[in-house]
Design a protein that fits this description.
Layout lengths: L1 H28 L3 H25 L4 H16 L18 E2 L1 H9 L5 H10 L24 H8 L3 H13 L3 E8 L5 E7 L4 E2 L8 H8 L16
Antiparallel strand pairs: 1-4, 2-3
């Protein structure tokens, strides 16, 4: 009777875990495509970062590990303790300005001062790996900012944001992806920055979504001549 009770308990827990996973998947699938792309990018970037951390932590070979174990055993016998040096990692978030490309577009006078200032003001809102403009890059599931949200975040007018975003979109610096429909039935868009100009993430592992969004514009008259290209 006791075995049957334990078995039922394990099965109940398994079903509860399965129900939670299914609910989580359903909630994810109900999200706007723009936000799902951001979450996928963030998740992939986090996994890659953890993998790199694990690999970088393997500072000793197998042979060296065996020697270390012998030394550790001797130290324990002598009531001593071997303490490894702590490795402090800087977890600061940062956005990379691709210097050669930035210098090139400046020399070409490709961007107006208003557009340059706008891009600089967006830096605190660029999501890691997704390169989307989000409410808070530190959040596990950041929410993409619409043009209205950008205006509120920057403390400026929607008219100005709309004008600058349109100009940067036409120049291939910003891409837009339909996010959701607002209460007044007006379509809203998630905004993404061209990683060849500003990028928050690993430049060797740029998400496929970004490559698709900016692949065509990179064949433009100015952008096709950028000194540094990632795809």
């Amino acid at each position: 009777m006791e075995e049957l009770t334990m078995s039922d308990s394990f099965e109940k827990k398994r079903l509860e875990r399965e129900a939670k996973r299914q609910k989580k998947n359903e909630e994810f699938e109900a999200l706007p495509e723009g936000q799902k792309a951001i979450i996928r990018g963030s998740s992939s970037a986090s996994k890659n970062a953890r993998k790199r951390d694990i690999e970088s932590s393997k500072v000793l070979t197998d042979e060296e590990m065996e020697q270390a174990n012998v030394l550790q055993a001797k130290a324990q016998e002598a009531k001593m303790k071997l303490v490894p040096e702590r490795k402090v990692k800087n977890k600061a978030k940062f956005v990379q300005i691709i210097q050669e490309n930035w210098a090139y577009i400046q020399n070409e006078a490709y961007l107006k001062n208003e557009e340059i200032v706008f891009l600089m003001n967006l830096i605190p809102f660029i999501g890691f790996a997704s390169n989307a403009i989000v409410d808070n890059p530190k959040k596990k599931q950041p929410i993409p900012l619409t043009q209205r949200g950008v205006a509120q975040a920057l403390g400026t007018s929607e008219t100005k944001v709309s004008r600058v975003v349109k100009a940067l979109y036409n120049k291939g610096i910003i891409a837009r992806s339909e996010a959701y429909v607002e209460d007044n039935n007006v379509k809203s868009y998630a905004l993404f920055i061209n990683p060849h100009i500003l990028y928050a993430g690993d430049r060797d592992k740029i998400e496929e979504g970004l490559k698709i969004q900016f692949g065509k514009v990179m064949r433009g008259k100015v952008l096709s001549k950028l000194p540094v290209k990632f795809f």
